[in-house]
Amino acid sequence: MSQTIKVGVFGAGRGEPYIDLISREDPDVIRVVAVCDKRADRLENMKKYEGLPRFSDFESFLEYGKKAGMNAVFLANFFHQHTPYAIRAMENGMDVVSECTAASTLKECVELCRAVERTERKYILAENYPFMTPNLLMKKLIDQGTLGTPLYAEGEYNHSGTLAELRELTPFPNHWRAWMPRTYYVTHAMGPLMYMTGSEPRYVSARAAHSGLLEKIRDFRPNDDGMARLFCEMSNGMIASVTGCTAMASDYSRYRVAGDIASVEQGGYTGGKVRLFYTSHTKPADVPNEEEYLTPDLASFGPKAEQALNAGHGGGDFWIVQEMIEVLGGGGREPFFDVYRSVAMSAAAILGWRSCLNHGENFRIPDFRNEEERRAVESDDLTPFPDENGEGRTLPPSTRYGRY
C-alpha cells in the first residue's frame, strides 16, 4: 500500500536542489514538510518555499516532524556527520536518505547497520553519479552481457578549484573540507562502478600524492595531498581502481569497465557519449565496427527521463528523488545503495586512508552484514576530523604529517 512520503530536509545548502525537485512532484506522492539548518542565511533563503516550516535545531525539527507525520529525513548536513542524525531519525520512526557518505568511522558503520536492523526503517544513500545518463547506458550494456565477464574498472572524480574558491568552501578552521583526506570522498568515483556491475569492495590498498599547490593554503586546509587512488578487489572478482575527490588539473570525471569481450567508458574526450570497444578477435560478427561512440537515449530510461535533463549532476539528482518515491512509498522495492553497500563504500574510504598512511598496506573490508565481523570493529573510532572545538582528531589529514 502506497503512502505519502513526507520529507524533512536537514541541510538547506545541498538540500535546496532536492527541495526544488520534490516540489515539482505530486504532493500526494512526496512533499517536503520541514527544513532544518544551523545557518540563519540558508534558512532565510528557504522563505521562497512559502509556508515551509524552518528550524535551526535538529531535535525541534524531529519533534515537529513527528506531529506533522514526517516519515523520512533527507540528510544534507556536513559530510562526516550523517550517522548520528540518521540514527536519531530512525529511532523516531523515520526512513533516511543520506547524501554523500554513510559513515566516517568503522564504529559508525557498525552503529548504522545495527540501527537499521533494530528500527526496521529504510535507508538509502543518495549517491547521484551512478544515475548520470552515460553511466546508465554503461550499466545497460553491462547488464546485457556485452562486456562478457567484467575484469577491471576505473573511476575518477575531479573537483578542482582556484585557491580563492577553496578558501570560500572552507569557512571556518574546523570545517570538514579542511581536514578530509583524499580517500574519504570516494562515492562519486566508486559508486557508479558498484551500481554498473552490482558489486561492492572487499579489499583495499591505496596511495596518496602530495600537492605543492595545495601546500600554499595549508594555513586553512591542512589536507594538502592532491589525490589518492584506491585499488580494490570487488565482490564479483573484478579489480577496481578509483580516486577519492581529487584536486588534479584534469578535465572531467570519467568511468571505464573492461571485460573479456568488450569495454565501455565515458568522460573527458567522449563528450557525453559512451565508447564501446571490442578487440578484433572478440567482436561479434553482426557488429560493424570494433569501436563505436554511443549517444545515450533518454527515452530508453522511462517516461520521466526527459525531466532529468535540467536536474543537477547530469540528471542524477532527479533520479535520486525517483528512487525515494519507489523505495519509500511502500512498494517494497529495496535500493541498490542500502545500508550494507553504503557502509562498505565508506569503509573502503576509511581503510583506504590507513593504507595511504602505511605505504599501501592491504586492508580487508569487514562484512557488515555479519555481526561477528561488526564486533571486531565496533570500537574503532579513529578519525581525521576534529570536533567543533578542534579536538578529537586521531589520524593525520595528509600523508605529509605522518603514518598510521
Radius of gyration: 21 Å
Strand-residue proportion: 15-25%
Query: Could you tell me how far the N terminus lies from the C terminus, measured between alpha carbons in angstroms?
Result: 51 Å
Corresponding CATH superfamily of the largest domain = Dihydrodipicolinate Reductase, domain 2
Which second-level CATH architecture of the largest domain applies?
A: 2-Layer Sandwich
Instruction: Write the element-wise H/E pattern from the N-terminal end onward.
Output: EHEHEHEHEHEHEHHHEEEEEEEHHEH
How many beta-strand runs? 15
* Strand arrangement, major sheet: 14-13-12-11-7-10-9-8-15
Looking at CATH, which topology of the largest domain would you report? Dihydrodipicolinate Reductase, domain 2
Report the helical percentage: 25-40%
Low-confidence stretches: none
CA-based shape: globular
Number of domains: 2
CATH class (first level) name of the largest domain: Alpha Beta
Query: What would the average pLDDT be, to the nearest integer?
Result: 93
Count of individual helical segments: 12
What structural class do you assign from the helix and strand content?
Answer: alpha/beta
Largest sheet: 9 strands, mixed
